[in-house]
Amino acid sequence: MNRLITMLSVGVAAVMLSGGAWAADAAMVTPAQIEAAKTSADHEAIAASYDKEAAQLDSMAKEHEAMARSYRAAAAGTKGANPAAMSAHCSKLTTQYKAAAQENRDLAAAHRQMAKDCCAKK
Question: For 64, how many CA atoms within 13 A lie in the half-sphere containing its CB?
């Protein structure tokens, strides 16, 4: 039981620390940026922000993948707690973070195309 509590504590601390770093370092795209985007450079800046978000989401996915493995390993000799449910939770978050990262990469690609189209018409 002590091993499980230690693993849970480490997992919670890692999520809290990495989540805070992710939020503080995020270069979120704002509606104002999108509305103001008129030049190729504007769209490239937005694309770069989406790329940065995708990298951060990929990092979060890897962390949750590792936590899911840890919970699965802890499940072997644990009584009372439910590491299998925690592992499933982390696996679900891994899938969601990976999907969000891909969506951000798709948005970055769309803005890079807008950057090309924006200047080609002029």
Answer: 21
